Amino acid sequence: MGQRKKNIRLIFLYLAFYGLSIGVWSDFAQVWLNEQGITISNIGLIIACATFVAGIIIIVLTKYVKKVNELFVLKCIFLLKALFLLLMFLGAYYSIKWLCITSFIFDAITNNLVASVTYPIIAYILKSESMYSKRKLVEYSATDLGLLIASFLVGRQIGWWVVDYNAMILLSLLFTICAIISVFCIKNSKIFFAERKNNIKNIFKDKILRFYLFYFFICQTAYFSALGMQLLMIVRYAQFSSSTAGLFIVVGCVCGDLFGILALKKLTPKNDCLTIFVKFGIRFLFYLAIVIFPIKEVFLVGLFVSYLISRAYENKTDGIYVNRCDKADMFTFSNLRYIFGYMGKATGTLIVGFTFELGLSYIFGICLIFMALQMTMALYLIKMRKNEEKWLLC
Predict the structure, then answer these.
(1) Cα–Cα distance for residue pair 239/10, rounded to 1 Å
(2) 268: Cβ–Cβ under 8 A, 6 or more apart, which residues?
């Protein structure tokens, strides 16, 4: 029992360092790439390709790897992430453009792989909807803190040294090294070893899980078709500096974290349909306002509301479906889920990249199409669960 609690704490610790690593760099990386002479549409294409490749890697792992130790995989991924961050810094320092872009792509791939491995590791120790939400909130909060640190540091002069984006790469590397130390401190690695069969067909026999996977694809597409390049969007359409844009995102996300904690403890509606409206419907209405009134003030209010509610109720919109799987199937199902999610993220990022120059009405108008489908599918999933409960009672 004592070792289990210690492992949970270490997992949350590496999640915190990982979130800090992402926060100090990922949003500013888009501005950094733009300063390297890469157009916004090509930045979207690069991010989408990195996400797509991560999905392909997960497909290979799911289909062909019969025995896997998730903890060992995580250690390897973190070591590779540290290497790519170091190469990215060297490429930027010596002005080697191809090394910068290549290292950025591989770093983005490793970030996606860390996310896909994390929850199965937690589930081997303790699986619950609240644990799923806590994991996300820890990662979100650390990412926000990292973005806050970067927003205060970028552009400031410390003595003779002006803090630039290259310094953020080094800071991201430092937090990654701290995450590596935390991962290597996790004990009793045998519990993370799974010998499994290729049971993808069994997962797809569950109608609810099958429908959920397609729903998750639409969710990711809807989210990233509006916010896939959020910092660049705020810099362009709100005419903020990159540091001010980062602070705006941090404030919105921190408020979202606080609301997510309150929602998990006290503010979760008993009616699941009402939860879906709070989670998606309110955001839909504010995005619609941006489409009708594409001005700076409406745009900023709509984004803030999106940040406020986007991190709440994941125990109801995702955790309840993820935890339908047994532990033996968790690795396979989690990989399938991230495959669909990464395809959605890649699609959404491509969309926002190609519509970026057309204006806010086009960006958020396309997003609304996917959001309408997202809400419809979420409500249908609730109906499927209720029908299942009635059938079991009978």
Answers:
(1) 41
(2) 275, 313, 315, 316
Q: Output b/e per residue, 109-127; b: 16+ Cβ within 10 A.
A: bbbbbbbbbbbbbbbbbeb
Place of tokens 């704490």: 9
161's enclosing H/E stretch is: strand 161-162
φ/ψ region of 316 (left if φ > 0, alpha if ψ in -120 to 50, else beta) reads alpha
What domains appear along the chain, each with residue ranges and CATH number? 2-393 (1.20.1250.20)
**158: part of which helix (H) or strand (E)?**
strand 157-158
Q: Give the distance, in angstroms, between the CA of residue 3 and the centroid of all CA atoms in the same chain.
A: 29
pLDDT in tens, 323-352: 777 666 666 777 788 889 889 999 999 999
d(CA 314, CA 323): 12
Please tell me the predicted confidence (pLDDT) of residue 132: 66
pLDDT at residue number 59: 74
Burial bucket for residue 269 (CB in 10 Å: 0-12, 13-18, 19+): middle
194 phi and psi angles, rounded to 5 deg: -125, 125
User: Distance between CA atoms of 255 and 354, rounded to whole angstroms?
Assistant: 30
Q: Are 58 and 182 in contact (CB under 8 A)?
A: no
DSSP letter string over 172-224?
Answer: HHHHHHHHHHHHHT---GGGGEEE----HHHHHHSHHHHHHHHHHHHHHHHHH
